UniProtKB/TrEMBL annotation:
It comes from Micromonospora craterilacus. ANK repeats lie at residues 44-76, 77-109. This is Uncharacterized protein. It comes from the Bacteria. SMART domains: ANK. InterPro entries: Ankyrin_rpt, Ankyrin_rpt-contain_sf. The keyword Repeat applies. It holds the Pfam family Ank_2.
Length: 130
C-alpha cells in the first residue's frame, strides 16, 4: 500500500533537498537533529548527502556524515556521494567521505571511474590514497 503525501509534506521535503543543494548546513543539521531522516531521498534516489556532495558543500557533507548519513547509498543512476564529490572536484568533501569509509570503487560509475573519465588527477590521487 502506497501512501500519498500531502502538499505540505511534499513542500517541506523539497525544502530539505534545497537546503542540501544550497549548503545550508546549520539549518539542515537542525532539522536532522529534530528528527528529519538523515537518509531522506528524493524521487531520483538522491539523498541529502548526495545532493550536498554534488553541489560541493563539504561542511554539509561533514555534518550529514556526523549524523549517520549512509555514504554507500546509491541513487537511481547508481551514483554515490563520493562520485558526486569527485565530479565536482570537492577535495574536502572527498576527504570527509573517504574518512567516513566511502568506497572509491562503489557505485556505477564509481568515484575512480569518474575521476579517470573526467581526467581529474587531483581526485585520483585522493582516491588512491584511501
Amino acid at each position: 500500500m502506497t501512501e500519498e503525501l500531502d502538499a505540505e509534506t511534499l513542500e517541506f521535503a523539497h525544502r530539505m533537498f534545497d537546503l542540501a543543494r544550497d549548503g545550508a548546513t546549520t539549518e539542515l543539521a537542525g532539522y536532522v537533529d529534530a528528527g528529519l531522516p538523515v537518509n531522506l531521498t528524493n524521487e531520483k534516489g538522491d539523498s541529502l548527502l548526495i545532493l550536498a556532495a554534488y553541489h560541493a558543500h563539504p561542511e554539509t557533507v561533514a555534518a550529514l556524515l556526523a549524523r549517520g548519513a549512509d555514504y554507500s547509498r546509491v541513487n537511481d543512476r547508481g551514483q554515490t556521494a563520493l562520485a558526486a564529490a569527485v565530479f565536482r572536484s570537492s577535495g574536502e568533501a572527498v576527504r570527509a567521505l573517504l574518512t567516513a569509509g566511502a568506497d572509491p570503487a562503489g557505485g556505477n560509475p564509481s568515484a575512480m571511474d569518474t575521476a579517470e573519465f573526467f581526467d581529474l588527477p587531483e581526485m585520483l590521487t585522493l582516491l588512491r590514497g584511501a
